[in-house]
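Example 3.2
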Amino acid sequence: MSPRRSSPQPVSVQHVMSSADAMIDMHGVVKTFKSAAGEFTVLKGIDLTIYRGEFVSIVGKSGSGKSTLLNMITGIDHPSAGRVVIGGTDIYSGVTESQRSKWRGRNLGIVFQFFQLMPMLTLLENVMLPMDYAEMYDFDERPKRAMELLELVGLEKFANKLPVLVSTGQQQLAAIARALACDPPLLVADEPTGNLDTKSADVIIDLFEELSRRGKTIVMVTHDPSLTSRTTRNIIISDGELINETVAKALPWLRHRHMLEFTKLAQTEVYPAKATILSRDAHVEKFFMIQKGEVEVVLFDRKGGETVISRLQPGEFFGEIELMRGGKSIANVRAGAGGPVEVLTIKREDFQRVMDQSPITAEAVGKIVQERLKEHRAADSRSGRGLFSLFRKRP
């Protein structure tokens, strides 16, 4: 059982309507910095929703705006325009710095790249510090609460040691315990493994995964692409704008600027259950990426019977063979029976232009084309149909 909290004075913040499942709602967030050289816009109208219990990574090149985005979420900086709603609370509208600071202490845990532990305090005292600042838990209960958190991260034996006397990995674990001191629903980590060896980094990510399973929402900024495979979502920011997650998932080989270009060019199309998306013998003039729902690739035999060759899921694509090789569609593609399907489409000329500019992507997609053609030539010989592959599965 968690220790009993004391009853702190209420913090006056504005509660707004938001999805009950949303931990973070950002609407049209803009951040512009002014200097003697003029204005520079770092965030350009960010719309982002992160749901409770998600473990999300945010990646982007230096200068892309990811640290500024994180500062908007934590309340460390102010947006020039737009709204930031955390757990149903608008943290900027009509809120003073003092109120926001108190709110942050009780509702948000922050893990920094360089730990930022107080060097003159023991690990136990470092973990207790936020409880004192936020006036959380009775004074006599705080050591027990802090020790429970150190046990959670495996540091109970080092509770009375100063930070300098433990390893960097252990210091980061202590920093995570400190971030959890007031039992916040949201944990934000800025490059938490940036100064750690691989083994220590794995321990940190294992812990984040466990905390996510327990219901915590975790947002982690990282430069390490190996870590993004372990998060439930990967959000990419480029030049102050968010890349569509479907584009990034379908075409991971693209450079970020090309992903952003496709994000801006993509058109959304919605098809009801069982509706035809592509018909046999139709010219294919678009590249399709599945955003929501399931797509079926179907072959009809001469007697009118049908065979569902493949079921494609969000993040998968189809139509690439016709765009890269030419020719008509010789299979039917339709929305699955389970409900409507939402796809993003890119016009032929835009798809081909970006493929010309991104030889790595063109090569990767070309290899998939070759593999699918080989597979379906074998299927054709059995069915006698001459079926071209319209689809590919993500590796």
